[in-house]
Amino acid sequence: MPRWIQAIVFVLVIALVAFFAFGLRARGEPQPSSGPAPGFALKTFDGQTVKLSDLRGKVVVINFWASWCQPCRDEAAFLEKTWRAYQGRGVVFVGIDWVDPEPNARAYLKEFDITYPNGPDLGTQIGPLYRIKGVPETYFVGKDGNLYGNALGPIGPNSGYMTDKQFVRKLDELLAK
Amino acid sequence: MKDIESKTCPERSRRIENRKLVLSHALSVVEGIVEGSKILWIALVSVIAALAWLTASPVAAQSPNIDDEVNRIAKTLYCPVCPNTPLDVCGTAACLQWRAVIKDKLLKGESERQIRDYFVAQYGEVVLGAPPAQGFNWVAYLLPAAGILLGAAIAWFTARQWLVRAQSSRPSAERVESTRPPGTSAIPKEYAERIAKDLKEY
Questions:
Q1: ipTM surpassing 0.85, yes or no?
Q2: Contact yes or no for A101/B97 (Cβ under 8 A)
Q3: pTM of the prediction?
Q4: pLDDT at position B1, please?
Q5: Interface test with A, best of B122, B139, B161 (most A CBs within 10 A)
């Protein structure tokens, strides 16, 4: 076999292995819990645009949810209640609706009377930035724009991911920083 | 001949004329029936068409096959919640919602292309079973073809090498000849003389 064909085969095999290895590695990486929070611009259901970079100096709670997700429903009332309690203290809640038809999402917001900014993850672009594996997932962004932990499941009194008390304590800690 | 016959037998020619008359009359009756049945057919088809037009509505026209249509489109879409499972067989709540969206859009008269475009705009290209043939995605389409071509090239070169090796390891007549000491022949001398003699005599 000519040497140039051997060289092409060798290069192609190496490229393929590297390509698949890179893909597998990226897929296996866990959700971020520290470092700079991935930036995004969210167009809300009300037509407003929320940019994460504009919220610097505030504590931001990013919550990924969907109307078809029962654990999201379980935590929805608690999140809204906490938002109402903290909204005047420099905390912003941002809800990102993931893989959800818009009418169902709007009905969900109405059902739980959710008033903090919420919008669809159009084109599923924000979810991959946080490498979310499902919903609900909640991320905490400090005043400096860095991530300070996450809750990779529902938040509630009996949650194994984060209890409501832990959640409130987290907000207080981030506000104090 | 015919003229001769008619002259020689006037009775017979009259009978023939009568038969012709009867036949032409029968033909005209048959034509009349056919013409009449044509009109009947046209009238019947018109009535059926009118009834179908009066009773048909858009929903009634679509409803018998709407679920098949939903399944056909759902088969080509993948929900990110359950990757690698097409929408038509996925039983999660998210997929059921998506199927309801497809049905709703079909009932509104949207085409398959419009529905697929909607899902891509809402949830990204990840919902498609195959990436659209554009930009970097072309790699996914060209790589298999390139692999086949490369494989064929490798197979061809390898086969050629095998053939060359096989030929070089087999002792050929020329090579045997070339290894014989100069001045000697493959045929014994007495045979050669005999052949030469026979050829001369022949």
A1: no
A2: yes
A3: 0.67
A4: 40
A5: B122
